[in-house]
UniProtKB/TrEMBL annotation:
Lineage: Eukaryota, Fungi, Dikarya, Ascomycota, Pezizomycotina
GO molecular function: ATP binding; riboflavin kinase activity
Alphabetical list of PANTHER family matching this protein: RIBOFLAVIN KINASE, RIBOFLAVIN KINASE/FMN ADENYLYLTRANSFERASE
Matching InterPro entries: Riboflavin_kinase, Riboflavin_kinase_bac/euk, Riboflavin_kinase_dom_sf
Keyword Ribonucleoprotein belongs to the record: no
Name this polypeptide is given: Riboflavin kinase
Enzyme Commission number, as recorded: 2.7.1.26
Length: 189
């Protein structure tokens, strides 16, 4: 892509219809070796009975925050945090992956954190804060990867602003004002 904006959304924070919330258990994806490309994606089931908005939202690339209920034995678990959920910035794709011509609509999340172990089967919650771009087809894998890496930069920079940072979780004054409490709330069961 030639020119793409480095930031999405205004400095005042997410605008309607965002934030959009969804949750589910991390499942196996298409097994295409995204991890080997340096872009592992944690897949969630696309289930319109649990996530009513997912059927009508445009396919494309979104960004926001993800929380994981990692088991205590996972190397990235944060056992002494105020919540059993760990919170991370994320970028995600919802759609048919035109480069691969999928027939099933998928939701896959690349978390902007280097994990020491996989987390299949773990409960994950997402707060979508904004839309980055439509899904595209590409002449080659390198162009797809380059665009995804740019998406990661856009997400990181956009989420670094105070109105896009979680409220009540920062230390030493780098706290944000975005309400992410749903992401770290203990589940009811
Ligand atoms: P699959 O086709 O099964 O989704 P991937 O190659 O996309 O396989 O790898 C996804 C898995 O990698 C996730 O389910 C998760 O357990 C693990 N993983 C490790 N690091 C990350 C990360 N930063 N973001 C998303 N998933 C990650
Ligand atoms: N697949 C596409 O076919 N077209 C896209 O534009 C596209 N954009 C993506 C953006 C992000 C941020 C992520 C995480 C994935 C995207 N994908 C896209 C899905 C990608 O093809 C899939 O994760 C592959 O498994 C990567 O090899
Ligand atoms: Mg995946």
């Amino acid at each position: 892509m030639s020119t793409r904006p480095p930031l999405i959304g205004p400095p005042t924070g997410p605008e309607p219809p965002y934030p959009l919330l969804m949750e589910g258990t991390v499942i196996s994806g298409f097994g295409r070796g995204s991890k080997e490309l340096g872009i592992p994606t944690a897949n969630l089931p696309v289930d319109a009975s649990l996530t009513p908005w997912i059927a009508s939202i445009p396919s494309g690339v979104y960004f926001g925050w993800a929380s994981l209920l990692l088991p205590a034995a996972h190397p990235d678990a944060a056992p002494f945090a105020p919540s059993p959920y760990s919170l991370f910035p994320m970028v995600m794709s919802i759609g048919y992956n035109p480069f691969y011509k999928n027939t099933v609509r998928s939701a896959e999340v690349h978390i902007l954190h280097k994990f020491a172990a996989d987390f299949y089967g773990v409960p994950m919650r997402l707060l979508l804060a904004g839309f980055i771009r439509e899904e595209l087809d590409y002449a080659g894998l390198e162009a797809l990867i380059a665009d995804i890496n740019f998406d990661c930069d856009v997400a990181r920079a956009s989420l670094a602003r105070p109105a896009w940072q979680p409220k009540g979780l920062g230390d030493q004054g780098n706290d944000g004002t975005l309400d992410c409490s749903w992401l770290i709330r203990p589940s009811e069961e």
